[in-house]
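Q: I'm writing up a methods section and want to include an example of the input and output format. Could you take the sequence below and give the corresponding predicted structure tokens, formatted cleanly so I can copy it straight into the document?
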Amino acid sequence: MKSPSTTVLHLVSWYPSKVHPSLGNFVAEHVLAIQTKIPGAVLGAFAADANSIDYQIENGVPVCRVYFIKKFPFTSYLNALRKGYEELLRHGFHFDLAHLHIAYPAGLLLLNLKLPYIITEHFSAYQKNRRKDLSLANRLVAKLIFNKAQFVIPVSDQLGLSLKDFGVKSPQITIGNVVNTNIFHYKTKVESQSFRVLHISSLQESTKNISGIVSAFADFHKKFPLSTLSIGGDGPADELRMHIKNCQIPKEAYRILPALSKEAVAQEMQESDCFLLFSHIENQPVVILESLCMGRPVIATRVGGIPQLLDKSRGLLIEANNRAHLIEALSEMYHHHQNYEHRKMAALAQNEFGYQAIAEKFLAVYSNVLRLNASGQKDLNLEP
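A: Here is the clean output for your methods example:
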């Protein structure tokens, strides 16, 4: 790195807050991993019903959250970020570079700061089939933010290709999401007569296809009555209950889970035989990485960055929205889930997605950005 005193501004578009406690929890994990190698501070702004600045140390990371009353979309948000940045300066911080987590909208601040910056991007809306969800202002400003970055870091190769197609010209390298392997690590499964399938997500129908999961499991359960589905998360449970009722799944065959702590998620994974995602669209779902680090195989759709994660040694890939294919995959997993090398799967995943591995990759990027910025060079050439 540039020097032992180098400090990073983690500027976040998404981050857990009192407004939405789980939004951007994967960003918080990236920050925690990086913090093990180099100090930094987090800055984020969140629309709320009152103006306030909340500065505190969380798990050793200084975090400044600015809550603001949203009067004008751009200016209210940008002014809140400026106030937060001034607050961090008052706390004695001096930043050598910025790490922007999700380009839009937080990157607005960096257009006015003289800091070299990189971007880690997670947002699936930059994929071609979802760009219609973006406003014109979002598309124009995001492209400007991306192309002023010294490096853009998508969490999957597929997202990187989508960003290039979107018009991003800054150099790229893929660095995936990170897993806290102190929580998610191999544990022997408690023996059970039932075949346990687990799904945890935001329960958003438009992306996670919750109705498709429930419908396919209902038919699968008729053939394999010893199977159970544990499903839930931090989304609309009423809709989930409606789907289950409509499909007439017996009460003993399912459990609806509330929003869970990471420790509770790990416990559910330990007790499961496989993890299931039937999504229409994804980038790099952290729950897949967590399941692999626990040594549990995964059934997931061939969308976004998922094919980059799964092979036959880790689970089964299926086509999106193909109900028959999902039932077939569940049947195959039912018969063969014990044949996976669970302990080996967990060890390899922990080495790939743990704090140490991901932090080292980011440090290499930081080092190159600072070195080349100091030398006045404009073109970066950092090989993955």
